[in-house]
Amino acid sequence: MAALSLAEAVPTEKMPGWQQALSEMFGTAKLPPLLDMLKRVIEANQATRKPKIAKGTRDFMPDQMTIREQAFAKIVSVFKRHGAVAIDTPVFELRETLMGKYGEDSKLIYDLADQGGENLSLRYDLTVPFARYTALHGMGNIKRYHIARVYRRDQPQMNRGRFREFFQCDFDIAGAYAAMVPDAEVLKVLVEILSDLALGDFEIKLNHRGLLDTMMDIAGVPTSKFRPICSAIDKLDKEPWEEVRREMVEDKGLPGPVADRIGEYVVLKGEPWEMLKKLTDDSCALSSHPISSATLADMKTLFEYLDSMGALGAISFDLSLARGLDYYTGVIYEAVLKGGGVGSIAAGG
Amino acid sequence: MAALSLAEAVPTEKMPGWQQALSEMFGTAKLPPLLDMLKRVIEANQATRKPKIAKGTRDFMPDQMTIREQAFAKIVSVFKRHGAVAIDTPVFELRETLMGKYGEDSKLIYDLADQGGENLSLRYDLTVPFARYTALHGMGNIKRYHIARVYRRDQPQMNRGRFREFFQCDFDIAGAYAAMVPDAEVLKVLVEILSDLALGDFEIKLNHRGLLDTMMDIAGVPTSKFRPICSAIDKLDKEPWEEVRREMVEDKGLPGPVADRIGEYVVLKGEPWEMLKKLTDDSCALSSHPISSATLADMKTLFEYLDSMGALGAISFDLSLARGLDYYTGVIYEAVLKGGGVGSIAAGG
User: Fold this and answer.
1) Whole domain around residue A15: which residue ranges?
2) Distance from CA of A170 to the nearest CA of B (A)
3) In this protein, which residues make up the domain named Aminoacyl-transfer RNA synthetases class-II family profile (chains A, B) (predicted)?
């Protein structure tokens, strides 16, 4: 475009052929505004034709691919060290396989157009496809990892690193094992990966669905409201208690005193053994409730395993931690970088 | 289910609780037919609930993943040895990016459901996304590889290894280079990969779009029919000449004598230097036609490069080779295993 904006100063005989031809047709006086107009038309066309990438997705350039491959290699190395095998599943599943598995989030599932065949949807995570995989192939005990892209038809905040297409690196232990053994190994794997990736100081917030349920039961939440209230608690890492309380009372119809009793529990967090001591003390209602007393015994077993594996130092026992999806029934956890700002960097249950 | 079919022989007191309860309600005489009915109902339910995988897709089990990873590692190693860098692009593109790029095959593109946002389609290959990538990021010369899945809404013959979701391993050289240098390197890369993978004896059929066009011009095909006739020639590896001739004459309206003149060319194939000698001889109409004479000079250059790289032995110069997609303009090729049966195992242009 530089040649065009310089045209006024260029002697006619030095102009490119087409400019010279134009100049002869219109005289040099008229040439600059004509060129200006041409410039605008051409630039507008280029803007129109500029190829676009789909919203919420990204290209990986060679240098980004190098980083990605190095990170995945470290993660895979930890997975393999713990005896996991790789599997892979298709990017889409029958719509019925995904339906009803994600609660409120089901609206974020990408459907394929009905093209006279099956009804298909892009996978939302790797967990439900893995459940379909084990049901289809009839596996017994399996420890597997799966690194692949998942899809969420969200309004992503790309400046915060959130996309509509992104990778999940999943590690699962399926089958029958002694209590808390798989949970301990999964947490150990997470600690090893976060150490190897050297992203900075991290902390793993840990809780148990059984404690959340008991807490709500003791506070007086009706069973039918456990899930909506749980999903309100889940927002505590992004919103202050006052806003979460408002949602419980105004949006979800919980009496104020019930919400306040929840508020007394969700402030409890800290070093695992100290927390366990506090919660199993006779003065704590959780210690005698039938669900939570069994759960607290499980937590003790889990902490003993983690301690012997040198993985307990990274754990914070945090009663405010909840997870949105319905399929979590036992231990739940979320890893965050200390210093914050980036949200959770790994999670599971 | 074993417990059910054995019920007749089991003393009532040894039966599981629910069978015992049934037995008391109906008496043991009525129990076996009742259990039989229950068995049928349960099995029918299980058949309904058996989770399904989407048609034309597959799960990769751990042992298949091992083979896949080994094969990809060998392929990537050859790509890197030739100085290629990795890139990756999203699984879907704006529909307009893919539209009009694949001729008749556009009907095989998977569209995503219109969900109030952009119109999106799953990628059909890695070539058009790469063109979009280079246009968007404004690269100069780049040698890149891209290993990823592509999607075709086909009726796939899965017993012949054809799927709706499958991997492509692409290697591309984009930018400005001396004539035939990138073509020679791409073919050398292909020879190295097929040797390293040790799939068995292979052969690379080679042709040039310029020769196909000249051949049709000399035979008397009108320019407007070049593409339909080309796509008929493309079927010669699966159908006999008689069927291809019938398609040209009956379906595509070519006069019989014109089809017969094409028939005289498409039987020509063989060792590159011998074929080149034959086609550049004054007695061959291709030698003096303006398009093909330049093309034959290019082929000579290409063969010299391949010869010096020790890659010419695998090449068969084959005038019957055509490629379906519109975006091929120069050299085209297709690799097949000798002994046949599996169709082409790699192709490009």
Assistant:
1) 2-49
2) 15
3) 33-321
Task: Tell me how far apart the alpha carbons of residues A55 and B146 are, in angstroms, rounded to a whole number.
Answer: 21
Q: Which residue of A has its CA nearest to B88?
A: A60
Query: Residue A91 maps to which CATH number?
Result: 3.30.930.10
Is residue B288 located within the same domain as residue B347?
yes
**Whole-number Cα distances in Å, A142 to A82, A135, A173, A183, B69:** 12, 12, 6, 14, 20
Do A65 and B87 count as a contact with CB atoms less than 8 A apart? yes
Q: Give the pLDDT confidence of A309-346 residue by residue, as tens digits.
A: 999 999 999 999 998 666 677 999 999 999 877 778 88
Query: Given CB atoms, is B92 within the 8 Å cutoff of chain A?
Result: yes
> Is B111 strand, coil or helix?
strand
Whether ipTM > 0.95 holds is no
- For residue B275, which of B338, B348, B207, B332 has the smallest C-alpha distance? B207
Please name the member of B92, B153, B165 whose beta carbon is closest to the beta carbon of A90. Answer: B165
Query: Which residues in chain A have their CB less than 8 angstroms from residue B94's CB?
Result: 52-54
Mark whether B165 and B246 lie in a shared domain. no
